[in-house]
Amino acid sequence: MPSWGTPALYCLFVWWFTTGVIVFLNNLSPATFRWSFGACTALAAVAFYLLAAVGHDQSVAGAYAAFTYGVLVWGWHEMAFFMGFLTGPRKTACAQDCGGWRHFRHGVAACIDHELAILATGIAVAWAGWGAPNQVGMWTFMALWGMRLSAKLNVFLGVLNLGEAFLPAHLTYLLSFMRRRRMNWLMPVSLAAGTLLTAVLVHRAAAPGDSAAQQAGLVFLAAMVALGVVEHAMLVTPLPFAALWSFWLARGTRAPSQAGGAAPTFVYAGP
To answer: What is the pLDDT of residue 143?
Structure first.
């Protein structure tokens, strides 16, 4: 159990901590965004280099490192979006009477640049680690990407908890692409698929014959997908989940009622 518990707890901590850092930085004055994003860009560049370098490290430490680097590369995209540096060509709200495919196209236009950047990064991450035995970082990035796409579609279709308190003031126009509903047809599919994938990964991690590093990598992925399922559940559960990051919110320079911040780092961003 210790070989399972440690990577699972590490994943939980990284999930909470990285989200908290982005919440904190987005609660600072917008005048600081350029400096914060510059530092994040440098960190992500180093993480990408190290992610490629650690591909041949088959130790447990290599699995931890690859997972961490994958999260850091992903975190750059989240910060780029929530600070407004990388969104899409549309910067205005959608008309109230807009609907159907036209409304969907407008939503895509509001975040397409960000989506294309993630696609390019995903290709680069896969290429950098192609054929390497340690693929933990690559699969971490892909899991985050998949769960985020699912969450975005669910928010567009309609969820109970839009998380307005997490949305920075300069991105409030994105609320026009979100719909408040108790449930939508995709959410049960997303929850079921995420839960099934978590179970498959846990079963695979429990299979005999894997090394300690392989087992740790599978536990990282299982825990990450499970947290993605939790974040999906947050969208349809009327509970004050922002309290999980109140430690970071309280340290921002803006009042909580005006705070921006990021919604859970891993999956939610935009319409």
So the answer is: 96
Nearest to 85 by CA among 107, 109, 113, 108: 113
Tokens 């990450």: give the residue.
224
Which residue's structure tokens are 């750059």? 76
Task: State how far the Cα of 86 lies from the Cα of 111, in Å rounded to an integer.
Answer: 8
Rounded CA separation 129/66 (Å): 10
What is the domain partition of the chain in residue ranges? 2-258
What predicted TM-score, i.e. pTM, was given to this entire model? 0.90
In single-letter form, the type of residue at position 228 comes to G
Question: Which are the contacts of 67, defined by CB distance < 8 A and separation ≥ 6?
Answer: 7, 10, 11, 14, 136, 137, 140, 217, 220
Cα gap 210→163, rounded to integer Å: 40
- Determine which of 80-89, 194-203, 241-250 has the lowest per-residue pLDDT on average: 241-250
Nearest residue to 49 (alpha-carbon basis) of 108, 136, 160, 129 = 129
Helix (H, G, I), strand (E, B) or coil at 159: strand
* Residue 1 binned pLDDT confidence (cut-offs 50, 70, 90): very low
Confidence band for 250, pLDDT divided at 50, 70 and 90:
low
How many beta carbons lie within 10 A of that of residue 46, not counting itself?
Answer: 13
Handedness of CA 109, 110, 113, 119 (dihedral sign): negative
pLDDT, mean of residues 63-81: 96
The helix/strand/coil state of 86 is coil
Token pair in block for residue 51: 């992610």
- The Cα diameter of the chain in Å comes to 58
- Banded pLDDT at 221 (limits 50, 70, 90): very high
